[in-house]
């Protein structure tokens, strides 16, 4: 399983590629579309982390399952390695934005002195 799509225990269907076969353009597009819909739901509910999260507080994960249907579509459309990558990238982008905002705040504060 090169790209993380499909598994030996899954039934063969047209929505998932065969084991070891790279995803088609349509499969990649479906993955991106379902990922974007899932992340839009998370954003709408101010949830930073994809998945259920492991900390206290709603911002750390979708513990209430408000985006469960979107998550199910995302996970069924994308390979596990892609999901892991996209989810880690989402957290990294939030951290980078927070760091840049803090740096801008400090720059403005220093300029006022």
From TrEMBL:
Region annotated Disordered sits at: 1-29
Q: Which InterPro entries match?
A: COA6_fun, COX6B-like, CX6/COA6-like_sf
Q: Which UniProt keywords apply?
A: Disulfide bond, Mitochondrion
Q: Where in the cell is it found?
A: Mitochondrion
Where mainly found? Answer: mitochondrion
| Cytoplasm keyword on record | no
Instruction: Tell me the Gene3D superfamilies matching this sequence.
Output: Cytochrome c oxidase, subunit VIb
- What family is this? Belongs to the cytochrome c oxidase subunit 6B family.
Q: What name does UniProt use for this protein?
A: Cytochrome c oxidase assembly factor 6
Organism equals Apiotrichum porosum
């Amino acid at each position: 399983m090169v790209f993380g799509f499909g598994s030996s225990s899954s039934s063969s269907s047209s929505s998932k590629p065969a084991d070891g076969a790279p995803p088609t353009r349509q499969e990649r597009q479906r993955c991106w579309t379902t990922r974007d819909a899932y992340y839009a739901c998370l954003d709408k509910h101010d949830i930073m982390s994809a998945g259920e999260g492991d900390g206290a507080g709603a911002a750390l994960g979708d513990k209430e399952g408000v985006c469960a249907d979107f998550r199910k579509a995302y996970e069924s459309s994308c390979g596990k390695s892609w999901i892991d990558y996209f989810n880690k990238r989402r957290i990294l982008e939030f951290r980078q934005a927070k760091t840049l905002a803090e740096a801008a705040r400090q720059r403005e504060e220093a300029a006022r002195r």
